[in-house]
Amino acid sequence: MLLTPVLPFPFISVPGNFPHLKSPSFFLIRSSSSPSMDTNPQPKKVAVCGGGVIGVCTAYFLSKNGASVTLIEQSSVACAASGKAGGFLALDWCDGGPVASLARASFNLHRSLAQELNGSESYGYRPLTTLSVSVTESSSSSSSSPNRTGPIPSWVDGPAKSPRTIGSTDSTAQVHPEMFTKTLLSKAMEDYGVELVIGKAERVVMAEGKTIGVVLEDGRVIGAEAAVLALGPWSKRFSVLGSLFRVYGIKAHSIVLEPKEANRITPHALFLTYYPAQGGKPMDPEVYPRPTGEVYICGMSAQAEVPDDPEQITPVPESINALKRVAASVSSHLVEGEAAVKAEQACILPCSEDDVPIIGEVPGIKGCYVATGHSCWGILNGPATGAAMAELVLDGHASIVDLRRFDPGRFGSALKK
After folding, report:
1. CA distance 414 to 51
2. What pTM did the predictor assign?
3. DSSP assignment of 253-275
4. What ranges make up the beta strands (E) of 56-100?
5. How far apart are CA 168 and CA 152, in angstroms?
6. How many Cβ atoms are within 10 Å of 304's Cβ, its own excluded?
7. What's the CA gap between 201 and 296, in Å, rounded?
8. Any idea what DSSP says for residue 331?
9. Full strand arrangement of the beta sheet holding 68-73
10. What does the pLDDT look like over 110-145, one tens digit per residue?
11. Contact, 133 vs 50, CB < 8 A?
12. Phi first, then psi: what are they for 257, rounded to 5°?
């Protein structure tokens, strides 16, 4: 049982008030900001567990709106899917579904955050033209020329056909997800006093039905009046969440290439229908050029077990090789030799049992909140999720997005006693 009733203990102002927290098992990164010494009421203390995009966005908006926030991360910030995702953003691709309002609000928040944080320079924010393209892998060394009757960019010189524009610069954009997450956290630490603790959050502590802190693996306590569990596929670590719903993991593979002629690669995101030379079902890889000169290619996804440590996630060699063949089929600029392979990687995306994010207060536990299950749209929906969670924690309700559809109580399970 991970929620343990205990006697109330004094809340701490910052984790640094505990000298014994500076043990070899974790370290503390402090910002230059310090609490104001005035007669105003003390800010609400919130512990956010999880240093991915959802947790960081939540910490950012909480602290910007006056909360005293401690962000707890087991390994390193953006070490999992938030550092290895594609960073593709779409305004209206979720229209007609339960995530439509969240996606639209978040797309617009990405735009305003990019203006506030100089996103085009600091984390590669830019609008994109997005194409759907069919590619058939050639079994020979030579390949046919693409069909130039459509909007195929010149660098896509493989056997591409049936191009179709599915997103304009008004409706699709991109960020570098790791740089976005770390930029936002740096801003929150420097300007709003967020404290970052590297350590494994083990359980939420409560007294008289209310959250009073989070216990780390080594037994140390971060005092808090509210706790936000933004743990992605690791949500099942907390039995209070596992008793309510199931979050499973989808393992997605990606490679990052650096072409010699990076200036030839235009800002066109490609969603492919890819037919392998050996036959079989078509695949649906995605290609995202980045303003850094890199080209990100992802695909080859399947349900997978979630290891205890995100650093233990390793790619399947066959999946990486398949993505390299996709790259070579799409463009001569992306063939190994013409492009350096900068990364071969995999990450695990958190998916809920009904494929809808889980965002809200945990039933029956005052001050304990959860935000997970965003699947492949975590980077897109991070800002609106964080802003809505901040409103929920500080004001008791969210106004930027109606969170009722995402309520964790929808699964109808009772908490285990």
Report:
1. 28
2. 0.88
3. EEEEEEETTGGG--SEEEEEEEE
4. 68-73, 88-90
5. 14
6. 17
7. 32
8. -
9. 28-29, 195-198, 68-73, 45-49, 226-229, 368-372, 358-361
10. 999 999 999 999 999 999 999 999 999 986 644 455
11. no
12. -110, 150
